[in-house]
Amino acid sequence: MTDALFLSDRGNAFSQAFEELGFTCHQVTPGAFGSPFCMPCKLLIIPSGFADPKYYKILSAIERNSDKITQFVEHGGVLLVFGAMLDDYTYDWLPMTLSYHMKFKAVDVTLVDTADPAASFIPPGKLDCDGYFTEWEGNVVMAREENRPVLISKKIGDGYVVASALHQYPSRQFLEWACGKERCACLI
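The line above is the sequence of Glutamine amidotransferase domain-containing protein; the predicted structure tokens follow.
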């Protein structure tokens, strides 16, 4: 079993950062995603740029497995999904309403909901954002100028969807929550 799976056709950008914090993160390729070869995990990561084929070729695997992603979250998994890196994008494969607009820049980010478990994602301050959310269900956890949400969290069943337009790795505290011993590993 692994703490986290990173859906990618281009290697694992999270493995080393997770290992340095004491967690495991394995890559799952689009062909294995949702198959019996996809190992159970507590945290599923869909990377920034997932919808733009110049970055990744994983969108069809995500769309094909939308029911399995919903079941993963409902059974206690945490889905961490990043910005689509398209001008405008609707995450119609998620079990919640979420739309995104790309606008990449370093901005001041404020913490809006300190009580949400995703508030530990990264300390607020001057952060790189690839955009912001224009329509959403759930809690706005962090926002940039003009109250534009950059971190959204929604509890669904026993798990969570955490959507991030922040261009940073999650903190140790976030990983301790998302991959904690009390969270069971779920199949995708």
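Note on the example: The two ends are 13 Å apart (CA to CA). The first strand starts at residue 4 and ends at 7.
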